[in-house]
Amino acid sequence: MANTRVYHLKFAAIYPLYVEKLARKDHTLDELNQIIEWLTGYDAPAIQAQITDDVDLETFFKNATINPRASLITGVICGIRVENIADPLMQQIRYLDKLVDEVAKGKAMNKVLR
């Protein structure tokens, strides 16, 4: 994936889109924060700090402690299998997208968090 413009998107701009997506499907902010914490190690105050500091996605994931079980995330997002993405940063971004999609589709949280 040569399109690295996504790396420079601000997490503060992406986060409300995730909130909105989950809210449309009757899911909560706490559920979103739970999946972000599972994937990145950021708890709710740390997530808020990332938003306040206006970090981009590259910095957000660079400073994260990625869950070692993240490699168990599989499936298709935007027509691409997440497990086949070669670029580690893009894969981490898509992991988060995939987790949000799974929650939005009603998958049980214990299955989402593998």
What's the CATH superfamily, by name?
A: uncharacterized protein sp1917 domain
Largest sheet: 2 strands, antiparallel
Strand order of the largest sheet: 1-2
- Helix/strand order, N-terminal first: HHHHEEHH
**Residue share in helices?**
40-55%
Question: What's the total count of β strands?
Answer: 2
The gyration radius over C-alpha positions equals: 13 Å
Question: Which structural category fits the helices and strands?
Answer: mainly alpha
Q: Do you know the CATH architecture?
A: Orthogonal Bundle
Shape: globular
Identify low-pLDDT runs.
Answer: none
CATH class: Mainly Alpha
Notes on the structure:
With 114 residues, the chain is mainly α. The chain has one domain (5-106): uncharacterized protein sp1917 domain (Helicase, Ruva Protein, domain 3, Orthogonal Bundle), CATH 1.10.8.290. The chain is 54% helix and 4% strand. It is built from 6 helices and 2 strands, in the order ααααββαα. The protein has helices at residues 11-24, 29-40, 44-52, 57-62, 88-104, 109-112, and strands spanning 76-77, 80-81. It has a two-stranded antiparallel sheet with strand order 1-2. A hairpin with a 2-residue loop joins strand 1 (76-77) and strand 2 (80-81). The relative contact order is 0.19. The model has no long low-confidence stretch (mean pLDDT 95).
